[in-house]
């Protein structure tokens, strides 16, 4: 008789088959369960989304979350110590400053603001911050390709902006058209020298003016004499290039030495883009004549001159860390008109 038993230790063929089938069955069952769960989760998300989009109906629980959670007394509103400012237009900061401020308060606030965001890019923000986002009339002496005006006009909302520039620049034209096309304010372009354009403006006309035309000592002094009376009381008068070479950082004002910031060095970008004669690493052209004119003019009026650091790394704007990168842009000066 044939022994149908298999050798010991070897599984029977039908039991191997059973194990295989069971494994396949369990795997399929798991996959099915997983898919079903995923599908149910998707449905839940879709219906939650639908609910969030639909209008609430009368039968809806008006405050379901309050019901679920133990009711907590609402925290009292903190006392408001500042007045609301006028309706903001463009990018004004989410802060309010007193509507009526003395010039001293205004200057202290402006100074604090500019010591944090100390670049000329912050001028439009400063105007917004001071509640001057609708600066009635702004202007710029020396516009070149419109880089600064572009920035100012994108971040503040003057009713009118005067650009005083004797020479047409291609980029400037393009920018002017773009800006004028986008915004509702008036841009007036005066293809003229500042000394000739001055007679076009009444006294107390400007709320903001940026002086960046000719930078010689006498020309800056002339622009200040001509345009200071054109400024409204409490307006911001500002200008570019308030700095000197290392050897010209001390300027004589009213019989005293005043220290001005260092202009820095030309970088290779500067060399490539603007000045063929300027080699990277060489000290930038001194603007001490410009700075001295500004300091002398305002010294006579007993007005404080502030200036930007343009992200110069040292906290003290007058002390430069020789190992830190030097910013490309020269500092700007600014003051509050009295
Ligand atoms: C340094 S660029 C101005 C740059 C511009 N403010 C900016 O930051 O984007 C100087 C400009 O002043 C102009 N300029 C020179 N003398 C001037 C004057 N007396 N009145 C007005 N503009 C003058 C020059 O034609 C030049 O385009």
Explain what this protein looks like in three dimensions.
The chain has 338 residues and is α/β, with parallel strands linked by helices. The chain has a domain of 234 residues: Vaccinia Virus protein VP39 (Rossmann fold). The strands form two sheets. It has a seven-stranded mixed β-sheet with strand order 3-2-1-4-5-9-8, sandwiched between helices. A two-stranded antiparallel sheet has the order 6-7. The protein is elongated and about 110 Å long. About 16% of the residues have low confidence. Bound molecules: S-adenosylmethionine. S-adenosylmethionine (SAM) binds next to strand 1, helix 5 and helix 7. This is Methyltransferase domain-containing protein. InterPro entries: SAM-dependent_MTases_sf. It comes from Vitrella brassicaformis (strain CCMP3155).
Keywords for this structure?
single chain, 338 residues, alpha/beta, Rossmann fold, two-stranded antiparallel ribbon, binds S-adenosylmethionine
Amino-to-carboxy terminus distance: 126 Å
Specify the CATH architecture of one domain: 3-Layer(aba) Sandwich
Side by side, the strands of the main sheet go 3-2-1-4-5-9-8
Oligomer: single chain
Residues in helix, %: 25-40%
Structural class: alpha/beta
Shape: elongated
Which ligands occur here? S-adenosylmethionine
Taken in chain order, the helices and strands follow as HHHHEHEHEHEHEEEHHEE
Biggest beta sheet attributes: 7 strands, mixed
The percent range for strand residues is 5-15%
Q: Supply the CATH class of one domain.
A: Alpha Beta
Here the CATH topology of one domain equals Rossmann fold
Mean pLDDT across all amino acids = 74
The number of distinct helices, counting runs of at least 4 residues, comes to 10
Number of E strands: 9
Low-confidence stretches: 40-94
Radius of gyration: 35 Å
Query: Superfamily at the CATH H level of one domain?
Result: Vaccinia Virus protein VP39
